[in-house]
Design a protein that fits this description.
The chain is α+β, with helices and mostly antiparallel strands and about 550 residues long. It is built from 13 helices and 30 strands. A 6-stranded antiparallel sheet has the order 1-6-2-3-4-5. A 4-stranded mixed sheet has the order 9-8-7-10, with no helix packed on it.
Length: about 550
């Protein structure tokens, strides 16, 4: 049959051939398991989903198959056999000279190598409406078997000019017609002659690599494979014509981030330099570049998208760090993005000395030390000396009673061990002024604003009128909240403002003192630290 009259139509269309017969008895058979070769075939086929006939410049499989894309068009001839042959060829299947542009040529292949079966295997060609001689309506590839379901991927499917698509069916037995065309048989590849591909880990830094079984591209950086996004190709000047195809197993096993200590920059340009620590990119400040010795390390360009993502990550909780320059001799442990000081006695007593110590840029470390452990983090003393449990609320470690531990669901959260001295210091702190808090159990529906350690109750009118409804509402252990609400007066220096006047009051020894405008300004007190409270709250304090 001439190529111009081939009828290799899509599986979604009903065959016009009413005389097609099968070459196998239509028996029900269970799908068979996959192998390394056939897994590769499945991965390659499914990676093409949505592509048309001119993807990759056209699908060309065996030496006797022609391209699915002719003259830049998609209508030269039906191309399902070209696609199936291309996928087999990409995985090194032997004997492809038996294939041509006819779907029926896959049955020729099966007869030659004795691989025709009524049982679908991953990687098989599935042939539809074979006439027993030289014609079949369609061919596609089995890309999955699971229980009683078979998944099939094929080219030239859907409305003309067709595309690659994947469909699943439970009607996979020979003789069944899951999409209007009768399954005539399954043809397994006879074997693979795929040459040994290089291990990417041994390739030079900057080499672009990919697996033969998928479209993903990575760039090699110190033994790691860093993903190259489509958006990186042009600005980062990656030459896709120089991609090296590598061993699939080794490709998938590549670390996704360079080793800790690797110095990197954006491949697209820019002056900023970063050091990789546990997969996170930490910015290197100007004062650290030479002092920490980063200037003598190889400086690796990495994909823009990957670097942006790595720079936004937090170091993993539990990592122990130090200033790479040695200017700060202290040691710290990372907890939810904050660096907590480890005292000399705790260094060995709490076994921090047994963990890997990571050097980090000094400027970055200063900012991490200044951070507060996020609200809601549940903590305990790493040494166990203090048996209590605490939750961080706006910079303070708030005690959790035994009943609240389970009653409020704290027992279901991650419990972070922290240095005891740091914890004691945090327990002594007040919940930050202006924090809006509420009983975490819901037993008390009152909303409070924190002012100098006192929980000041708010009416709904106060809550909205003071603009507190725009702030986060922090669930707080009820016992702590009751204690804070019962306090007689805020801490000395607390500044209050009530709606009855424009006077700012400062608490001194349980009394209030009117403040003057000249006490505020640059280098002085800030109006941002003034807390709005109900008139009744300020009224109860005598005036100095």
């Amino acid at each position: 049959m001439s190529r111009s009259t081939l009828k290799t139509t899509a599986i979604r269309l009903i065959s016009a051939s009413a005389l097609a017969v099968t070459v196998l008895t239509a028996v029900v058979a269970s799908p068979a398991s996959a192998s390394t070769l056939t897994d590769g075939i499945a991965a390659t086929a499914k990676a093409e989903n949505g592509n048309g006939a001119c993807a990759h410049g056209g699908y060309v499989g065996g030496p006797n198959q022609s391209s699915s894309c002719y003259g830049g068009t998609t209508t030269a001839h039906a191309w399902c056999a070209d696609f199936a042959g291309w996928v087999w060829a990409r995985n090194g299947v032997t004997g492809l000279a038996s294939l041509d542009d006819r779907a029926a040529s896959f049955m020729d292949y099966g007869k030659k190598y004795g691989t025709i079966s009524s049982t679908p295997h991953v990687g098989d060609a599935v042939v539809y409406n074979y006439n027993g001689s030289d014609y079949a309506d369609h061919v596609a590839l089995v890309t999955g078997v699971s229980g009683g379901t078979v998944t099939i991927t094929g080219g030239n499917q859907g409305a003309r000019p067709g595309h690659v698509s994947t469909n699943s069916t439970s009607s996979y037995s020979v003789g069944s017609s899951p999409w209007g065309q009768r399954i005539s048989g399954y043809v397994s590849p006879a074997g693979s002659n795929t040459p040994t591909l290089p291990n990417p880990a041994g390739l030079p830094a900057g080499t672009l690599v990919k697996s033969p079984n998928g479209p993903d591209v990575k760039v090699m950086i110190n033994g790691a494979g860093i993903a190259v996004a489509a958006s990186d190709v042009t600005p980062d000047k990656y030459d896709l014509s120089k991609i090296v195809t590598v061993d699939d197993t080794a490709f998938r096993a590549l670390p996704s981030a360079p080793p800790s200590g690797t110095v990197v920059h954006d491949q697209a340009g820019g002056a900023e330099r970063y050091v990789i620590v546990d997969g996170t990119a930490l910015l290197i400040g100007a004062e650290d570049w030479t002092a920490a010795g980063y200037n003598v390390r190889p400086d690796m360009g990495v994909p823009t998208a990957w670097l942006q993502n790595a720079a936004q990550r937090q170091l993993t909780t539990g990592i122990v760090v130090m200033d790479q320059t040695g200017t700060d001799p202290s040691r710290y442990i990372m907890v939810n993005g904050a660096a907590l000081h480890i005292s000399a006695s705790e260094w060995t007593a709490d076994h921090y000395n047994e963990q890997t110590l990571m050097g980090v840029p000094g400027q970055w470390l200063k900012s991490a030390v200044a951070k507060s452990v996020p609200t809601g983090t549940v903590l305990m003393d790493q040494s166990g000396t203090d048996p209590n449990r605490y939750v961080m609320i706006a910079g303070a470690a708030v005690h959790i009673s035994a009943s609240e531990w389970t009653g409020n669901g704290y027992d279901k959260q991650s419990l972070m061990g922290v240095p005891g001295e740091w914890l004691a210091s945090s327990v002594s702190k007040q919940v930050a002024n202006g924090s809006i808090v509420k009983d975490a159990s819901g037993a008390n529906s009152t909303v409070y604003v924190m002012a100098g350690g006192v929980a000041v109750p708010l009416t709904y009118a106060d809550f909205t009128g003071f603009g507190y409804d725009k702030r986060s509402l922090l669930g707080t252990p009820g016992e702590y909240l009751a204690s804070a609400a019962a306090k007689a007066a805020p801490a000395d220096g607390t500044m209050l403002l009530s709606p009855d006047s424009n006077t700012v009051w400062q608490i001194q020894g349980g009394k209030k003192k009117a403040m003057t405008a000249d006490q505020f300004g640059e280098g002085k007190l800030s109006f941002n630290d003034v807390i709005s409270v109900p008139t009744a709250f300020t009224a109860k304090f005598p005036t100095v």
